[in-house]
Design goal:
Layout: H1 10-19, E1 30-32, E2 37-39, E3 54-56, H2 69-81, H3 97-110, E4 114-118, H4 121-132, E5 136-140, H5 145-154, E6 157-161, H6 166-183, E7 190-195, H7 207-217, E8 220-224, H8 238-241, E9 250-254, E10 264-268, H9 270-279, H10 281-284, H11 291-306, H12 309-327, E11 338-343, H13 345-357, E12 360-361, E13 364-365, E14 375-379, H14 387-403
Parallel strand pairs: 3-12, 5-6, 5-7, 7-8, 8-9
Antiparallel strand pairs: 1-2, 2-3, 4-10, 9-10, 11-14, 13-14
Helix pairs in contact: 2-11, 3-11, 4-5, 6-7, 12-14
């Protein structure tokens, strides 16, 4: 056999990304997160950076609880009591009462019979969709990558409908219903999957209408509340805000955003949770969520429900939205995510660099994370930003936007 190279040209691949300005890099930071800062010291014996202080308006730490003393104390107590890790899959020896306490609180908050935690939100989505093993999935075109990968791994037919467009979803449902009738497949299982809050567009799915369509066509509904959990009524998500607990079959979310921890969860019926315990490979064949993460999330969920953090967040969101729109930026959606659309990725990168030079951190979101021509800056305030912090962010946007001719 002649010499041949069946390997991978990784340098060429990386060079192409570099040319397209799409190469991602890691940039470690140290935080003083009570006001959303990057700072030059974290204290203690941890490795820290010698960096200038900057205000962060790009974190998913929406309620500012990652540095809340009560959340940190809960994690410390769990570490001292049960240890820093689960040590095994929860179906083996990795199950603890800390996990069960969190799952009880999640089920109570989400208005379901039970909940189950996973090691990540990604694992929760992939594991749940593949465990349900539907015949057909109907997926919003802008769904998170973990939902998309869950659809792929399920190996079933997937119909993608236009973003937040009930008419497009209806058309897909009707088309599949006609084909199923022609083929005699009246017993197919159908699953509609959607984010509730879309993390880079700021849009909110029309869940009530989606539930109506699901009921009309006999489908199940799965809602990813990753960017909504903890932010709405009683610490719930959009499902709770719209009173849809009895109409959404699968409520998924993460512990790593407003709940200031790490991991994911699924809430639903007892039968659903029992199914996932047995059939979700990303649960059964993965070490259980760290007890420290579970304890931190429990305390953060309590604070999301009973403190004034949610009110403070939405006040900051309203102030930022009003200021950006007054400048002339169009901010779609009605969530806490405020995308400032620029279009060209080079302009977006230049805008982000200009803000960073003025002490404001708002990274650019560009292809392949978003379609070509839709690059934007994703502005995300947190509850612990002060009024002065928000004003500083707006002033930086006005200055840099004017310099670049965007205003």
């Amino acid at each position: 056999m002649e010499d041949c190279d069946r390997g991978f040209d990784l340098e060429d691949r990386l060079g192409t990304l570099e040319e397209r300005k799409q190469k991602r890099t890691l940039s470690p930071v140290d935080r003083v997160a009570e006001r959303g800062y990057f700072a030059d010291s974290a204290g203690g014996d941890l490795p820290v950076l010698d960096s200038e202080e900057a205000l962060v308006f790009s974190s998913n730490n929406y309620l500012g609880l990652t540095d809340d003393q009560r959340v940190q104390d809960a994690a410390r107590q769990a570490a001292a009591t049960v240890g820093t890790g689960s040590g095994a899959s929860r179906v083996v020896t990795g199950d603890t009462m800390v996990h069960h306490d969190l799952e009880r609180l999640l089920a109570e908050t989400k208005g379901t019979e039970r909940a189950l935690t996973f090691s990540s939100g990604y694992a929760a989505n992939v594991g749940t969709i593949t465990a349900l093993d539907p015949d057909v999935i109907f997926s919003d075109e802008f769904n998170h990558a973990s939902l998309i990968d869950g659809c792929r791994l399920a190996g079933c037919e997937t119909a993608v409908y236009d973003h937040c467009d009930p008419a497009s979803l209806r058309a897909e449902l009707e088309d599949r219903a006609d084909r199923a009738a022609d083929d005699g497949n009246d017993d197919e299982s159908w699953l509609i999957v959607t984010d509730s809050v879309f993390s880079v567009d700021g849009t909110v799915a029309p869940l009530s209408t989606i539930c109506e369509l699901a009921e009309e066509f006999g489908a199940w509904v799965m809602v990813d509340e990753a960017h909504a959990t903890g932010l709405y009524v009683d610490g719930g998500g959009v499902v709770q805000a719209e009173g849809l607990e009895d109409r959404v079959h699968v409520q998924m979310g993460t512990l790593s955003k407003a709940l200031a921890s790490q991991g994911g969860y699924v809430a639903g019926s007892n039968a659903l949770i029992e199914c996932l315990l047995n059939d979700a490979r990303s649960f059964a064949f993965s070490t259980g969520l760290a007890p420290t993460a579970a304890a931190a999330a429990s305390e953060a969920l309590h604070l999301a429900r009973y403190s004034d953090a949610r009110e403070q967040l939405w006040e900051n969101v309203a102030h930022l939205r009003d200021g950006l729109e007054t400048m002339g930026f169009s901010i779609p959606g009605e969530s806490q995510v405020l995308p400032v659309f620029v279009g060209d990725q080079r302009d977006a990168l230049t805008l982000a660099d200009g803000l960073r030079a003025r002490g404001i951190v708002v990274p650019a979101i560009r292809p392949p994370a978003v379609p070509e021509g839709t690059s934007r800056l994703r502005v995300a305030p947190i509850a612990t930003h002060s009024r002065e912090d928000v004003v500083s962010c707006l002033e930086a946007f006005r200055t840099v936007g004017t310099e670049l001719g965007l205003l």
